[in-house]
Specification:
10 helices, cell membrane, 7-stranded mixed sheet, alpha+beta, transmembrane, rod-shaped, 7 strands, Methane Monooxygenase Hydroxylase, Chain G, domain 1, about 350 residues, magnesium ion binding, Beta Polymerase, domain 2, MgTranspt_CorA/ZnTranspt_ZntB, about 60% helix
Length: about 350
């Protein structure tokens, strides 16, 4: 075979492992494979440190290998088969199980689509699994490669949640910048039809808000009744992540409402512009009405056309048409002013 197993598995090894790291207290993470991770997990508990294994669920062997080799509670397997949905985090079997909705990462293109990440965090093991690449996991992996030190698997999970909040904050900032630009053009009366762009941004933000809104509630429920094995520093880190994520969601909701008001204002401006155009067309029609009527009468090829033999008949008709036109214009503009 000319292609390696990793290349044929789209960035994962033969069991669907995308990346694995072993962490020793006070040291940076060391990249390991699936076999080395199993050897560490089966070693004596006195062997300090933990491993982080990140899997690609699109790999056919991934779930079967995790179920057969990793010490994961049954609830994690149920969460995987329940599919994506609202964010949740709960203790089970001495581990923290979480379903996190995050922003997908395209190939060279930052996407605004939302995808799901399944997480299981214990004392010696952190497992993350996804179907599509995610931005927050990519940020976390970059931090590990940069040499950041993590004291426990749960601290790595809380850093992941912090990255998730940072990604959301970045999306809110970028969308706010675009909305500011559209609002400035609207205030400067340089109207353009931004309705499709605003609708797309609002639709994306509302979808993200619907999927991510349950996360602070799930975290606060866990903080109100934390399990006994969750250390106080971990509880504090989780509380800080929850508060920051709540602020980001509030900013997102405010931005959605702002886009809604801007859409209404833009629609009102465009309707007003359309009404002015229709009024101009109506005025042209009204002012041309006397000319058309008189021209129609005098254009008939019948006998008895008045002023046909009068030496000043043409100018009499011009004066008559101009008088009717001025009268029609005065009537139309007076009606418009009365409104």
């Amino acid at each position: 075979m000319s292609l390696s197993i990793a290349s044929a598995s789209y960035g994962a090894d033969q069991v669907g492992l995308i990346s694995g790291y072993r962490f020793v207290p006070g040291q940076r993470g060391e990249a390991i494979g699936s076999d080395a991770a199993l050897e560490f997990l089966r070693s004596s508990p006195q062997n300090e440190g933990f491993v982080w294994l990140h899997f690609n669920l699109a790999h056919v062997a991934c779930e079967r290998w995790m179920r057969a080799n990793l010490p994961l509670p049954e609830d994690f397997d149920e969460m995987l088969h329940a599919g994506g949905g609202s964010t949740r985090i709960e203790p089970a079997g001495g581990m923290l199980l979480a379903v996190i909705n995050d922003v997908a990462l395209g190939f060279g293109v930052v996407s605004s689509d939302v995808a799901t990440l399944w997480v299981a965090a214990g004392s010696r093991l952190l497992v993350t699994a996804r179907v599509r690449p995610l931005r927050s996991v990519d940020r976390l992996r970059a931090a590990v490669k940069a040499g950041e030190v993590f004291p426990s698997a749960r601290s790595l999970l809380f850093h992941l949640m912090q990255d998730q909040a940072d990604v959301m904050a970045g999306i809110v900032r970028e969308t706010t910048r675009k909305v500011d630009h559209i609002e400035d053009r609207l205030l400067a009366e340089r109207l353009q039809d931004h309705r499709a762009e605003l609708s797309g941004m609002r639709r994306t933000l509302v979808r993200m808000q619907r999927l991510l809104a349950p996360e602070p509630g799930a975290l606060f429920r866990l903080l109100n009744r934390p399990p006994s094995w969750l250390a106080e520093p971990d509880v504090q880190a989780l509380r800080e992540s929850t508060e920051e994520f709540s602020l980001v969601l509030n900013d997102l909701a405010t931005l959605v409402e702002r886009i809604k008001l801007l859409q209404e204002e833009l629609a009102a401006k465009l309707n007003e512009q359309t009404n002015r155009t229709l009024f101009t067309l109506t005025m042209v029609t009204v002012l041309a009405l006397p000319i058309n009527i008189v021209a129609g009468f005098f254009g008939m090829n019948v006998g008895g056309v008045p002023l046909a033999n009068h030496p000043h008949g043409f100018w009499v008709l011009v004066a008559l048409v101009a008088s009717f036109t001025l009268l029609a214009g005065w009537w139309a503009f007076s009606r418009q002013a009365a409104r």
